[in-house]
Amino acid sequence: MARPMNSLPVGDTHDRRLVNFASALRSLRERAGEPSLTEMSRRSGVCTAALSEAHSGHKLPTWRTVHGYVHACGADATAWRGKWDDLRLAQETSLVDTTHAALMRRWASTQRITPPQIKNEAELARLLDHMRRFRGLSFRDLERRSDGYSHHTYWAVLRGSRPVTSNILVAMLQACSVDPGLAQRWLVELARVRPSEELRVLTLLSKFKALRPQRHLRRGPTDARPPSVQVQYFSGSRPITVAEATVPGQDPVRLTGPPAWTPPGR
């Protein structure tokens, strides 16, 4: 028989949405006959500590943990994904300023990760970190979903201790499955706030495949997941390197302004 669960948090200091989510997980477990955490771990491959924390109401569990918890109770995890996404988005928007919170809500409602007019490099790094969180990706997830950059590099870039380069930006946009047309707009914003990247941005834009927006990104009003099939921006399977982005026999050129962006298909 399963051990009794600890009481859920009470009081105004706790996130009621998180507590309600934990309560729903507990109810699911009860309807499944209250299997022990050890048995649930065996069924799901998720450790007992993570399963216990999932229904504690203190911290939002990862999607992998929620999926394992629900699967171990014999239920379909599909319906739970939307609940988890809604809760995660609510938590993420509560941690950022009002303007960026509104932007993330617009990303969720439209499923188009459109860049705003960015003020400087520091804001660009913050927005990219919001994008990572919006997609529910860890730094190691970024590393796994892209070629050439470690999770340490992504951490340094998004924390502002390393600059955002055009190639790092492309790798991250691909990892977050940003539509090719919108990815070009992010590159234009990079060129505007970091003029030293203008030439490389122009070269990258010329190499983009002529793709229309990816219809498979639209899954629902609050689904922030990156699709299982990753977007590829170029003919190959990787972003071009810095060497490939250099124009042979030509010195770096200072442009008078950012490159004009033309939507794909126009």
UniProtKB/TrEMBL annotation:
Q: Where is this region: Disordered?
A: 247-266
Name the domain of life.
Bacteria
- Pfam families from the xrefs? HTH_31 (PF13560)
Q: Which organism is it from?
A: Streptomyces chattanoogensis
Name this protein carries in UniProt: HTH cro/C1-type domain-containing protein
